[in-house]
């Protein structure tokens, strides 16, 4: 597989998914905000 910028960015984002899921479910008030969740 050729590793160019778009491929590396995609792999990086896929690797970060579990991190954001864990941050979202942390029992702190700022956890949803840290995971990028915005209330409507």
TrEMBL record:
One function term, GO molecular function aspect = transferase activity
Q: Which UniProt keywords apply?
A: Membrane, Transferase, Transmembrane, Transmembrane helix
Keyword Transmembrane assigned to the entry: answer is yes
Query: Which residues are listed as membrane-spanning?
Result: 12-31
Instruction: Write the protein's name.
Output: CDP-diacylglycerol-glycerol-3-phosphate 3-phosphatidyltransferase
Supply the source organism for this entry.
Answer: Salmonella enterica subsp. enterica serovar Adelaide str. A4-669
């Amino acid at each position: 597989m050729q590793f160019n910028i778009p491929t590396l960015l995609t792999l990086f984002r896929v690797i970060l998914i579990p991190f954001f899921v864990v941050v979202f479910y942390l029992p702190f008030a700022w956890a949803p905000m840290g995971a990028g969740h915005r209330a409507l």
